Amino acid sequence: MKEFSKIPGIGESIFAVMSRMAVENNAINLSQGFPDFSLDTALIELVHKYMLAGNNQYAPMPGVLPLREAICDKISALYGSSYSPAEEVTITAGATQALYTVISTFIRPGDEVIIFEPAYDSYVPSVIANGGIPVPVILRYPDFAIPWDEVKDKITANTRMIIINSPHNPTGVVYSEEDYNQLAALVNGKNIVVMSDEVYEHLVFDELKHTSLLSFKEKIPNSVTVFSFGKVFHATGWKVGYIIANSMLTTEIRKIHQFTVFAVNTPVQFAYAEYLKNQEHYLSLNSFFENKRNQFNNLLSPSKYHLIPSKGTYFQLLDYSALSNLPDYTFSEILTKKFKVATIPLSAFYSTPPEQTLIRICFAKTENTIINGAQKLLTASEEFSLST
Ligand code: PMP
Ligand code: GLN
Questions:
Q1: Is 154 found in the same domain as 23?
Q2: Within this chain, do residues 9 and 153 fall inside the same structural domain, yes or no?
Q3: Are 267 and 67 a contacting pair, CB within 8 Å?
Q4: Are residues 265 and 137 in the same domain?
Q5: Taking CA atoms, which of 52, 122, 150, 154 is between 20 and 30 Å from 179?
Q6: In this structure, what are the phi and psi dihedrals at residue 72, rounded to the nearest 5 degrees?
Q7: pLDDT tens per residue, range 199-235
């Protein structure tokens, strides 16, 4: 159907491909990013409560007010910035819809969008579907630092947006305040929207602190920040997220939002509004996931995988160059089909993948899954070592 496709070069998402392969092969699924443990039953009970109380019809287009208020309170407490619930918060059907809506709002045919690669897989197709031109800037292995000089060189009169993601999926890098200062200097005085994807804001390890674009509202006035409750409350299937932007930008974003989803699941929004009031519900996540990262890394330390330290998110990169020089898709396929553990080949996160031997695993898993998944990766490491 090439004649009708707006994104002809794009196939099925790697997350769908690998999760299906995991199921078909009865493999432990460390590929797609979602927890395999249940969420807090108190949160489920809250949804139930609001459903029984009759909150089952359309929510207001920007989201229910108590949730927008709770979000602004949280932002003010964590990042010291004040935002208006009425004019600067929009509740979305997850971060993926938020990202698409923001891109669709601001990107016109021919507009250039700077995207740091490896990048979450929805950015590039969303830009192309809206007639924009993705301009990749490669984050280089092993530290995946942002090469700000290259970013500067890639900014043109057509640059309309820069997308930044921290903590970063898939590398686990947490970008610093200095990175945001560099960004601020580059966009100063230009008509460039900065969109920051912060869905992993509460998954930051080793005493590091999350720097949010929300703290840069003066330095970067055209800023849009995207969040997801799916990652924060272990509920990826509920698909609720939000967008924070100043009122001028929000007005434009809501014009598109109202004609894509109009409004988002009502009882879940009320439940989140109440659940957010207890800071422990999200401030405990750093140590919760840090322990899981440490457990996974300890189990794999006797292997020949080189583990790239993850400072945030619930992902971990493994370099398998000491085991094989097979392309990462092939290596992931063998891991899934033969060794029964599914991972994500890093090539999936690039427009033009560099030559490298990296796979991503997700450690948002029960202790049992981590032990079993690590065991299968260890078996693969031993067998590959014997055959080389
Ligand atoms: N951005 C990043 C970096 C992600 O890893 C994900 C996956 N959760 C999303 C956005 C999408 O989030 P959601 O599931 O809320 O659509
Ligand atoms: N964010 C998740 C990941 O990176 C997957 C989201 C999805 O499946 N679309 O694995």
A1: no
A2: no
A3: no
A4: yes
A5: 122
A6: -65, -35
A7: 999 999 999 999 999 999 999 999 999 999 999 999 9
